[in-house]
Design goal:
DNA-binding, Rossmann fold, 11 helices, six-stranded parallel beta sheet, homodimer, transcription regulation (chains A, B), elongated, transcription (chains A, B), 3 domains
Chain lengths: 322, 322
DNA sequence: TTGAAAGCGTTACCAC
DNA sequence: GTGGTAACGCTTTCAA
């Protein structure tokens, strides 16, 4: 009610609306009054009047994975720079997504961003029915209001196969996660490149995206044979695998076993691990997400963000130099 | 406008208000109509009418520290269970807090939760002036609308000194973080217990709460002397210290150096580290925060949540058994 | 450029 | 137990 201190509410509204026409005199009066009263316009009625909240919801889970929390941090910062607020909800599976989104809809959030993969057409349909734009940071079903920004896993994974071969790998292993689009893309990219190079077989084990999963998967891999070059679909699992290989199996890395991950989480560069991996350009990913938030026309294809190879000690076997 | 499908808006409002008096018949009619139209009450006008948003804001930084993201995860889940939403904003320093909170105020958030320590009276005053309840997960200035829920650092740190002595430590070291209330409490608790045990000197080095800080601090510690028992104010720094001690200094843990941390982050139990530490009971902490959100009377003293000792290999020297 | 007035979709209060 | 009606504090449209 800052309008007691000057003129009409229209004037106040206009001074606080970016591109409105107010005379300098008017604006000055209003600003002075606002400062005196410590007045700040309430955003709630604005949302009601305009239908836009400037709130972006993020539905995420897996906070144990530094990759997700890194993305979350970049996202929360860039959203704020873009003048938007973030509402955060915890969601473990895409199956729960439509429930979460419909709840969020009641707050009139402008869009939902999620690292979850939308795995089925039925979930996608339920989501589209809610009429809220969704940007997923994962491969999966898209179309309608669902858009995707993904890491270019196939290209990177082919590169991994290449590097492991060059570094002297001869018996390959792959540690993946539960069935999911990214899991499949990474394994395919890896397998294809291997087969181009004449390697048509490799051991595989499925972990759970986390450290323990990688630890167990590595042991399984060695029950099947004696791989000397392992590609893991994410760093956290790779670190678990490294520990299993070193402490449980008593093998050396990279001398006995080469290993690579994906994500470039902070721990991967700790000297104990010094893991070769692919860096996902988080700012680029988030920028792409923000750009998608502005778009309205259905997306033709997911935006692919290239990942860059980070070579560290786990792939630098001396034979390479020899 | 589900009211086209039955009766008055008051009736609709009542069916969607938990403790309201509606006849089963009425409720049935409304629910049916809502289901048919896919109607869900818009929460924005409700906020405007009631003044309560059921939104709790969280102002946090330091996502690189798993302790914070663990707390965040528990918080986001429990808030939801309590029927509230979380708005997340990134904030590195308490100095920025009043700016952030006043911005949040425009969304009519019910309260702000932050792991940041409110270090000065002037920041506290500025915050109180905004008339928004604040719960900090850290020691510091409280009073007015500012409440605190903290880990009982002093007791735990005394316990650390005790354990390191019993395990055979004779020359002590402490790795802390930048000046902050928790840093001081942990160092004091540790130092006091040492001095009770007749140890009046210890080496100290200041890191930066993170891995690199701990790594460098450990090296500094060993430039000052040759400590054989080190207490770190948090796990992340302890892990950095462990790597420095092992790879750079070539010493063994626990044979040559005992070490302890605080927080019990996931990585501390990885076999490579197997770090003794203090577990902060995150659900208990968050429950206490939620309880504080309901309180209105000024808080007399910060709520202290005990931390429990987790003994692992880094403090189990064989001399202990001897 | 400015002011008046009508909405926005709820809740809250008051009769019935 | 129910319906009517006045807020809530903005934006928007329309005249001046």
């Amino acid at each position: 009610m800052a309008r007691l201190a000057g003129v009409s509410q229209s004037a106040v509204s206009r001074t606080f609306t970016p591109g409105a026409s107010v005379s300098p005199v008017m604006r000055e009066k209003v600003v002075a009054a606002a400062a005196a009263l410590g007045y700040q316009p309430n955003l709630i009625p604005r949302i009601m009047a305009t239908g836009r909240s400037e709130i972006i919801a993020v539905a995420a889970g897996g906070f144990y994975n530094p990759y997700f929390t890194d993305i979350l941090e970049v996202l929360v910062q860039m959203l704020r720079d873009a003048g938007k607020q973030m509402m955060l909800v915890h969601t473990e599976s895409d199956l729960a997504l439509d429930g979460v989104v419909s709840e969020l809809a009641r707050y009139r959030v402008d869009a939902v961003v999620t690292p979850l993969s939308i795995r089925s057409r039925s979930v996608a349909d339920a989501l589209n029915a809610l009429r809220i734009p969704i940007v997923t940071l994962n491969a999966g079903v898209t179309g309608g209001l669902i858009r995707a920004v993904i890491s270019d896993s196939e290209t990177a994974s082919a590169r991994a196969a290449q590097l492991l071969c060059r570094a002297g790998g001869t018996r390959f292993g792959y540690i993946g996660g539960p069935e999911s689009p990214q899991q499949n893309l990474r394994e395919q990219g890896f397998a294809r490149q291997l087969s181009i190079r004449g390697v048509h077989e490799y051991a595989r084990a499925i972990g759970n995206f986390d450290y323990d999963g990688g630890y167990r998967a590595a042991l399984q891999l060695f029950e099947q044979g004696r791989p000397d070059a392992i590609y893991c679909m994410n760093d956290l699992a790779a670190l678990g695998a490294m520990d299993a290989i070193r402490s449980r199996l008593g093998l050396r890395i990279p001398e006995d076993v080469l290993i690579m991950g994906y994500d470039n989480i902070a721990m991967s560069q700790w000297p104990t691990y010094d893991l070769s991996t692919f860096d996902q350009d988080k700012p680029a990913i988030v920028r792409a997400v923000l750009a998608q938030l502005g778009e309205t026309a259905p997306q033709l294809a997911p935006i692919r963000i290239p990942a860059s190879l980070i070579e560290r000690r786990t792939t630098s076997r001396s034979t390479e130099v020899a």
